[in-house]
Write a structure and sequence with these properties.
Distance between the termini: 178 Å
Order of helices and strands: EEEHEEEEHEHHEEH
Low-confidence stretches: 218-222
Strand order of the largest sheet: 1-2-3-4
CATH topology of the domain at 37-172: Ribosomal Protein S5, domain 2
Structural class: alpha+beta
Helix content: 25-40%
CATH class of the domain at 37-172: Alpha Beta
Length: 261
């Protein structure tokens, strides 16, 4: 018997798109950059006793902020830490507050209490940086504060300390903060004007010499010390002239006495 092999004609399919084998696979969608910066303050393992035994979960405390005056806190529980962080961030976005910041610090001193925690906040001069503990420092940095003095008294609970600081940030009087803001703006304007006038006075001006050569001369603004230093040589010259006159007078008196003799 002769075996006959039947070959089917190959037809090219144009309607089907050709797959690129060398293209890497995309592992999930890329996360877009968030407006707020997240910071995990505390992760704790909590347990609940049920009929079948103990049910263990994770409690996460998260603080978020945009470093432009907005900050919020969130607490959530879940079976996994990552899931708890997501839930806490979502809760923190719902509980955002606005912090009044004037020249990188708070308007005035404030003391806030929550439970057993007492938090004292004080404004600081520029360049001081944040002098605070872990929980308060995290909130201040995420809020956009650059200079701050603080003290945590009483309870060491991070949840209570953070809620106390958030209460302190929301307790500022808006009328008084406006007055402080106006004062700070006027002060900055006056300093700018003073700097500009000093630059104008010390700017070099071109003047022509007696020969006609242009020379650079500093403005007329001179300090009192410089004027005194320039006035000293004139005094010394006057003293020298007086001494010479006295010596000449003595010589003439001696000559007259000799002539009389």
């Amino acid at each position: 018997m002769v075996e006959t092999v039947v070959t089917t004609p190959t037809v090219e399919r144009t309607d089907r798109t050709v797959k690129n084998i060398m293209r890497p696979r995309s592992f999930g969608s890329r996360r877009e950059p968030s407006e707020f910066e997240e910071r995990v303050i505390e992760v704790r393992r909590v347990a609940r006793t049920v009929k079948g035994g103990r049910r263990i979960r994770f409690r996460v405390l998260v603080v978020i902020g945009n470093k432009k005056g907005k900050v919020g806190m969130g607490i959530a529980k879940a079976n996994d830490v990552a899931e708890a962080v997501k839930k806490a961030v979502a809760q923190a976005k719902k509980n955002m507050i606005i912090v009044p910041i004037i020249d990188g610090t708070i308007p005035y001193d404030v003391i806030s209490k929550h439970g057993g925690a007492v938090v004292m906040l004080k404004p600081a001069a520029s360049g001081t940086s944040i002098v605070a503990g872990g929980a308060v420092r995290a909130i201040a940095e995420l809020a956009g504060i650059t200079d701050l003095l603080s003290k945590m008294m009483g309870s060491s609970s991070k949840v209570n300390n953070i809620t106390a600081t958030l209460k302190a940030f929301t307790s500022f009087n808006p009328e008084y903060t406006e007055r402080v803001q106006k004062y700070a703006d006027n002060k900055s304007k006056s300093t700018k004007v003073a700097v500009e006038t000093a630059e104008i006075k010390t700017a070099p001006t071109t003047t022509k010499d007696s020969v006609g050569v242009p020379t650079e001369s500093v403005g007329k603004a001179k300090s009192k010390k410089v004027e005194k230093a320039e006035a000293k040589p004139e005094k010394t010259e006057k003293v020298k002239v007086k001494k010479k006159v006295k010596l000449e007078a003595k010589k003439t008196i001696k000559k007259e006495t000799k002539a009389k003799k």
